[in-house]
Structures are given as C-alpha cells and as structure tokens.
Amino acid sequence: MQDYDPLREITRELDREESRLTVRVEKRRYNKPTTIITGFPKDADLHDIAKQLKTSLATGGTSKDGEIVLMGDHGKRAREKLEALGFHVANE
C-alpha cells in the first residue's frame, strides 16, 4: 500500500494545469482519420488517461512515446473530455 503524499498530489495537479495539450486529427493508413494528443507532463499516467478517453469516446487507441493516439476523428469531443479532466487544451 502506498502512503498518501499531499505534496505530490499538489505538484501533479499544478503540472496538469500548466501543461498545454494539442489535439490534432491526421489521416493515416488507408486514409482513415486519427486523433493525436500531445504535450502531456512527464509524470502523467498516459495509460490511465487513454483508457478514460477510449471508454468515454467509445473508440480504440493507444498511448506511447508521450502521446495518445485515438482511432477516428474525435478532436472536439477529446478536447472537451481533457478539459473536464483538468488539462488545458491549445486552440488550433
């Protein structure tokens, strides 16, 4: 069992608020749209964030190399969900 560290929680929340995420939609293999989210803080739990996004958007995807890749054009809905999670998303 891990001990609760309030300082770590505060710094994690500050990192989340100060980071600027970018959400873009690209056409990839077979001309299919793919949503790519970058700019996460280094200590962010990408696996957990990706899981929440995939569940709420009902899509597949992965998290690797500091970014989250979602299958499909989910730009607007992904921005809304990330803002609800406490991230700042840059406008494109």
Number of strands: 5
Low-confidence stretches: none
- Order of helix and strand elements from N to C terminus: HEEHEEHE
Assess the beta-strand content as a share of residues.
25-35%
CATH architecture: 2-Layer Sandwich
How would you characterize this protein structure?
This protein has helices spanning 6-18, 46-57, 75-84; strands at residues 20-27, 33-38, 61-64, 67-71, 88-89. It has a single domain, classed as SUI1-like domain (Translation Initiation Factor Eif1, 2-Layer Sandwich), CATH 3.30.780. The mean pLDDT is 87. The protein starts with 5 loop residues before the first helix and ends with a strand. A five-stranded mixed β-sheet has the order 3-4-2-1-5. With 92 residues, the protein is an alpha+beta fold. The chain is 38% helix and 27% strand.
Structure at a glance:
This protein is an alpha+beta fold and 92 residues long. Helix content is 38%, strand content 27%.
